User: Fold these one by one.
Assistant:
Number 1:
Amino acid sequence: MSLHSTYDALRHFADSWGLVAMSVAFLVLAAWPFRPGARKTNEAAARMIFESDDHGE
């Protein structure tokens, strides 16, 4: 297999399955905060910025 055909094979793989893999990864990461068990963690993260407001005062 020559270098040119290796490049073509890898490019074809990236164009097809690479796009599928990136799409699946995006969907999983975008949906992760909305899973049912994440409510407590999300609420704690939302309130975290208001804890200990007296730094340096």
Number 2:
Amino acid sequence: MSLALTIKARGWALLLLSIVGLLVAVPLSFSQPTSASVLDRLLSQYEFADADIGSLLFDPTNGYILEAHRPDELRIPASTSKVVTLIAALQILGTDYRFATSLLITGEVNAGTLHGDIYLRGGGDPTFTTDDLREFVSALRRVDIKRITGRFAFDESFLPATREINAQQPIAVSYNPGLSGLSINYNRILLRWKHKPRSPAFIASVVSPAEGGAVPLEGMSIGPLPRDLDHHIPFLLDGTTMDRWLLSSTLPAQGQVELPLKAAPGRITAILFRTLCRQQGIDLPIPQSATAPAGARVLYMHQSETLPGIVAGVLRYSNNLSAELIGQVAIRTLRGHPLPLLESAAVLTDWYRQTLPHTDWNGFFRANHSGLSNATRHSPRQMADILRYGWTLPVGKSTFPQLLPPPHWEREDNHSATVVRAKSGTMDYADGLIGFLTTTQGRQLGFVILLTDFPRRAALDANFDVRVTESSPAARAWTERAKALEQALVTDWIAQY
């Protein structure tokens, strides 16, 4: 080859590399016309209006958009918004991050007595359990502490205490608990009941579930629900500062149910620890709230697994408390101090604005870190830009997409090979599926599907009753059709590309 041709060839190569680099640097914007015929058929088949759905199919390597339908219209993302929280948390906290819960003491031990105080301090661990708490009892036994002369305190100052994630949710659903820096068992309790013979009254108990055996929970009470309330209201808090659950006389003769812990998660964790200590012959006073002093010594520290393992669990099981605590801890680390939930969510939005400055963030709003809100708004294009950012985010020896689980239809059908990894989201009249797929031709693509029926959602919110826990048959049918459409659209993309 002549020198002139060699120089010319190198010039074309440099030009090509510069174009590829430009495609990687810019947000999703290069698109071709949507394959409307397939989507139109699916909308008709599953009885949705054109305005109900926004979707986007893109190549994460270069940002090229293959299909798009109303990609810039804002929708309710439901739990797909957890992806937004978790990608940011992995970047802010790092993949080696572990949540810590500590037992601290002051004073000295003499003849089985601690002449000082004990502090149980939380660090925002979303996975802390009753079984983990037993380790702290063993730590006291190892140094022969059987009683104390001072106080026993719980320290939940690491994060602001929040009574519930979203007030616009039914009061008795376990997915909407209170939040605390010292949470336990996802802040859920197990209520068991049995009718007294020949009486409408109950014999009831509240326990903390654990692999080592359920532990009775003190500090909570139970009562009868007023008879004049609707029979569709099985459980209700009586509105006091402590959790006191009221039970309907129309409940079955016996049963059990998971209920949220709302009023004082840190206090309940401390009471549970006191019960476990008493079972081992260790006498602690009634716990009180206090911040551990700087001079307190760490007697024992429990550390969670590393963040990627916890994130994978949140993506699979969609636990709201976990997403909220992870998000709040990430923002605490970013800012250096804890923030209330709404402010914490706003700071995370600002972090994305700075991290992805070319994305159009107009209208993007987060009420919290879990997506449990009818006020949160994301567009498909905004979500796609975030997914593309997470596409190459290192997570140990892998990348973020590998933390996403297969959708329910792949798990149910026992697929030998995973071709879709995605996060779903579900609220009444709002549903979504976002993630990555591998086509029959071996291409790896990202996708976002968000459905929202705003008129029906608005009507539901206007008549919202916090006491009613069940979705209406119409809302459940809407969700079933939404999920069927999502599966059909993803399946078509896999085959077509």
Number 3:
Amino acid sequence: MDIDSLRKAIKVFSQERDWEQFHSPKNLAMAVSVEAAELLEIFQWLTPKQSEVLPDDVLSHAKDEIGDILLCLLNLCNRLGVDPVQVTADKLEKVKLKYPVDKAKGLALKYSKL
């Protein structure tokens, strides 16, 4: 399934349940944050090495949370009339300017510190 088909399926899912009444941009943005926090909780006390090799049950839980985040985010895109692929491509171009390879390669510094 491509992203446009997924967006349409999410819209139909919400419409069939009459949930769009609850999906204000504010509520959806909050839901993205809540679901992201649930993903963070999975990794909270793991070492970096442990986070690289998750047991199957933990990986399954992480996948569910990633799915929840994307569902909320795509719902928000639908509600705001935003093309998620285009805004991501646009943002990538902005980030490339902030973090040129010759200055940022191998560094985990904020652009203002480069």
